Amino acid sequence: MQIVLFEPEIPPNTGNISRLCAATATPLHLIKPLGFSLSDRYLKRAGLDYWEHVNLTVWENLEEFLNSQPPDRRMVGTSARHGANLHQFKFEPEDILIFGPETRGLPPEVQGLLDQHIRIPILNTVRSLNLSTAAGIVLYQALANSGAITKLL
């Protein structure tokens, strides 16, 4: 499993997701442009002292990231409103989970490049979940569903 944040905007969300990745040995990829500097104090604070345990790669653009991946690696995009329900989706241990920017989600041109799309079911009274909350929900469901959770036990 890997997590990709496409053009993340809010430093504390990325910091929280980095801690999630450190706790699960999940590689984290950041696709530029970033809405912050990697030296941002809020980013560092949210990640606390776990940064040395994060397998982090920063990419200049999505094309560069995609070209680095094996052709058989499945890309799973996330959306607040469309895609398969998270709890019904069959994850594979090598899936790459791609999350869009906090204020706009994955743009259609990126969604069109992805193999699969999932969503976390939520009531329509809420626009979306916080990015770091959503990443945690999706990652743990993916790890459990694919059998990869055993690496944490």
Distance between the termini: 16 Å
CATH architecture descriptor text: 3-Layer(aba) Sandwich
Structural class determined from secondary elements: alpha/beta
Helix coverage percent = 25-40%
What number of structural domains do the residues give?
1
In round numbers, the mean pLDDT is: 92
Uncertain spans, ≥5 residues at pLDDT below 50? none
The CATH homologous superfamily corresponds to: SPOUT methyltransferase, trefoil knot domain
Roughly how many Å is the radius of gyration? 14 Å
- Could you tell me the strand content as a percent range? 15-25%
- Give the overall silhouette: globular
CATH class: Alpha Beta
Helix and strand string, N-terminal first? Answer: EHEHEHEEEHEH
Instruction: Report the count of strand segments.
Output: 7
Q: Major beta sheet, specifics? A: 7 strands, parallel
